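Holo prediction. Input below; ligand is guanine.
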Amino acid sequence: MKIIDGKKIAQNLRKDIAQQVKTLERAPGLAVILVGDDPASAVYVRNKDNACKEVGFYSEKINKPAGITQQQLLDEVVRLNNDDRIDGILVQLPLPKHLDANLVIETISPQKDVDGFHSENIGKLMQNKSYLRPCTPKGVMTMLATTGIDLAGKDCVVVGASNIVGRPMLMELLNARATVTICNSKTQDLSGKLRRADVVVAAVGAPQIIQGDWIKPGAVVIDVGINRLENGKLVGDVDFDAAAEQASWITPVPGGVGPMTIATLLENTLTAYKNRK
Ligand code: GUN
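Structure of the complex:
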């Protein structure tokens, strides 16, 4: 069994981006909007801001009160759409309930949509023509590439069908010519499906629900989940120790997919900069 070291892969990606930034006319710019004071979101936003500074990007961290109106938030997005220093705009999700996240995402200029959530970018992903692709699934593809395994013809099972991870992950794997099964909370015989999988991508958000003996010997296991147990320990959606006995390659939690999401956001911001030039 080998570990797919997301921390290391992300570090190399960031180093490469920092090198490229030095050769550019101006620093690529990313604006991250945080609405309200959800502590987990605040940590994610701070990490994204710090990562930008580290590679030499121009970064704006914009904090808005939880009580902001829909129109005020849309106005802020439009302002950033028209700001030439800004190449990428990210609105941290989830938003407070009175705000329509979909409307906010659709208001971001598709050229600046570094999350890849705008319907135009999702549509392009479905046609295998995309340039701004959702960060976490794209980061998973970068990790899979480091194993040297050709995904064409492989049986892949994605567990979880969210807009942010599961659905775009399905398209990424299909674009790599894999055969993909996507599971949701109503899926029958999940363990049976996983036992036939050459590649498992777990994105459920439930601690260690994927058992080690559901993993086919030699399979590749990608764990997107980050769950905090009552004792404070961070674990994934997969029972790591048991799954590691079966897998050929496996991602740890923490230090797996997490660091890749932010590194891929930087990669997307650089792509958005180049496309705007
Ligand atoms: N919340 C959880 N994951 C994400 C993400 O990838 N992008 C944004 N904007 N919000 C998130």
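The chain has a mean pLDDT of 98. That is the main takeaway for now.
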